[in-house]
Amino acid sequence: MIKAHELSKRYGSTLALDRLNLAIPTGSAFGLLGPNGAGKSTFIKLLLELIMPDGGRLEREGVARQQIGYLPERPAMPIRSHVGEYLTLVGHLCGLGGRRLHTTVEQRLVQVGLRRAAGIRIGACSKGMLQRLGLAVALIADPPLLVLDEPMEGLDPAWQKTVRDLLVELNRQGKTVLLSTHRLSDVAQVCSHVAILAQGQLKAAGALEDVLPPRRQVIIGVDRVPDGLRAALASLHPDIRVGGGAIALAGEALASKAAALSLLLEAGVDIQDVTQQRLSLEEVYLEAVRA
Amino acid sequence: MSRIVALSRFQLKELVRSFAIAAPTTITLALYWLFFEFPGDVDYFAATGGFVLLVAALVTTLLLASQANRMSSTVVVVRLLRRSELLGAIVTSALVVTAGMAVLFTGLALGQAKVAMTAAHLAIIAPRWLALAALFAVVGLHLSRLISRAGSHLVALGLLAFMATVVEQEGVLLRGSLAGITRAVLAISKPIMVALQEPALPASLASYASSLAVLVVYAVGLFLLAAWLFRRKDLLWAD
User: Fold this and answer.
1) Domain A214-279 maps to which CATH number in 2.60.40, 3.30.70, 1.10.8, 1.10.1740?
2) ipTM score of the complex?
3) Chain centre distance of CA A187
4) What is the pTM of this model?
5) CA dihedral sign of residues A117, A149, B15, B130
6) Is residue B187 pLDDT above 80, yes or no?
7) Is A69 at the interface with chain B, CB within 8 A?
8) Is any Cβ of chain B less than 8 angstroms from the Cβ of A76?
């Protein structure tokens, strides 16, 4: 578990994090969302002890700082070294050695599709290759906690999917994944938990199903709606919408839900499902950020 | 320790690949031609060699610290058990380069018959060169922006310039109102001056050894101060 208690960080006159309280459960896939300047990178740098807090504290239970697999937002690497050589150095710094180091470096290069690029200079790598090398560096010592800052940046759609699947698999294996990104779809597909930051403050946090509230709307799925029934439904409440194979009740029209269902049953309509939808991550995000 | 060795090996490769190694090499060669236009005795060789190597150690440390003070060090720093390991690797790399410069300097002097000396001379000279190089490699850390906090590298530069001026002008300063400070600075810098000016075969081996020991204590003390400054520094690399 990672816990931030009243965590604050200031850069000169700019308050980057303002008394942040946040808990990241062990084994979760945690999405960190927020606009530019929200404090996401500051939180990550504090977690990695690259910067020190001005107030509050950050606890990492069961994970030492050097055990964290980290992919920076822009993976800056020594451009004159070679791909395999750099990965070997990081592996060495992680305590790997001898045959195990050699095998691990090979495995990681294969995992990120850079096996044939082991001997080329980092300066000659494309943006996507750099991003994949950064991912290999983050994964080198099988870290229990992965911190990834915009991991899909520079990747083509095929590699984006590969990386997404890899993150889901690593999380399934029990690793904690902290994903900082602007890509809401990645968070929705990979993460079990989410936090939304804006202007250094926490706007929303928790399990994805808790953060996304039920929408004030019920959809009744039916096989068909006889023409005569449309007018009857409209007479219950003008906001009841009928279209295709669905009847939507929103706002005050929800009070007429039972009456609408009775009408449909009496008319012999086959009711296939009744669902209450949740707000999308995008809607919650935009509302939180605007607030 | 193995992390420091691995990191040091990597830094040395980077130094060569970036051609930054040309700086200490050029300095060593330039100072050699300056000091050894004409042949000198072994005492002169020991003194000039000590000066050349302290400059080489200082410059190499500044180059390595500058290389390390970049965003590409982020992943490395995160993986280290302690940040001081990075500083340890820089000092180790600087000493390896300085050792290479010592071989170059000595090889040139012997090869061109500019000095005559025995293996015993070299055995006595080597520890003082090593102690001087270690001290000035650590001083180089304090002059770098890598560990600097609130402009501490400028304070270090000012102190170094002040000490050099006091040592250079001691005759004048000891007669003036700054006599007390001058005596204090001379006392602090005495082991350095001994290592630079003592004859190749010193009159008192005990006194010579104690001076070198003080140099090592200085180097260790300054390294601990550098590690303390760097330990909680905000690393906001943006290059």
Assistant:
1) 3.30.70
2) 0.85
3) 3
4) 0.86
5) negative
6) yes
7) no
8) yes
> Angle A233-A239-A241 (CA atoms, 0-180°, nearest 5)?
60
Q: Do B14 and A68 touch (CB under 8 A)?
A: no
SS3 state of residue A106: helix
Q: How many residues does chain B have?
A: 239
Give the type of residue at B89: A
| Rounded average pLDDT over A21-33 | 93
8 A C-beta contact, residue A83 and residue A118: yes
A66 touches chain B (CB under 8 A): yes
As a whole number of angstroms, the distance between CA A105 and CA B9 comes to 18
* A94 touches A134 (CB < 8 A): no
Q: Chain A contacts of B3, Cβ < 8 Å?
A: 92-93
Instruction: Write out pLDDT tens, residues B92-148.
Output: 999 999 999 999 999 999 999 999 888 988 998 999 999 999 999 999 999 999 999
SS3 A243: strand
In 3D space, the residue among A121, A118, A78 whose CA is nearest the CA of residue A102 turns out to be: A118
| Closest by Cα among B231, B19, B204 to B146 | B231
CATH number of A2-211: 3.40.50.300
